[in-house]
Amino acid sequence: MNITISDINLNEQVSLFEDSLRPNWNDKYYLYEALFNHIVEYKSIKGIDIEIPLMEIKCSCSYFSTYGKRFKGKGGIYFLFDKNGKLLNIGNTSDLYDRILKKWIGKNGGSKADYYFSDYYHSVALFCENDDMKRRLYEPYLINKLKPPLNKEFNYYDTSTYIETLKKEEEAARSSFFSRYKRNY
User: Which domains are present in the chain?
Assistant: First the structure.
């Protein structure tokens, strides 16, 4: 399912930023950008209601590493869960297969957090969206609606779990005789 102007309740959403409207306000990409800027500037999703597409797949990370290749080169939003099914992280990417695999292995662009948090990720859910503007809007909206504890960027509710978990994992790594074993797939 795609976002349409009617899905975003245009009349209600436009009132959030009517002072900054340009003459081309009913251009959907301007609307996406204006909604994104509103969420980031005001650090809130209050009054914004966006219909989210259905998940295309939900499976274990190990299953995804083998059978998720059909998502290589496809953009979308991914959701990472722990072994109990608790949502931990939401992200936006232009290559779902590559990003999810790197997050799971702990080798996503050299991020210390991804390295330490990778052992927490057990399963993944996702939906495809190749339109970068829509993905840019979905990510901060979903992070603040669903409140996953291991997101830092666009987290406008509580970063304490992120900071505490990172600190705990860094201390465990420093006190360990051997560096932590990471999956090498």
Answer: 1-50 (no CATH), 57-175 (3.40.1440.10)
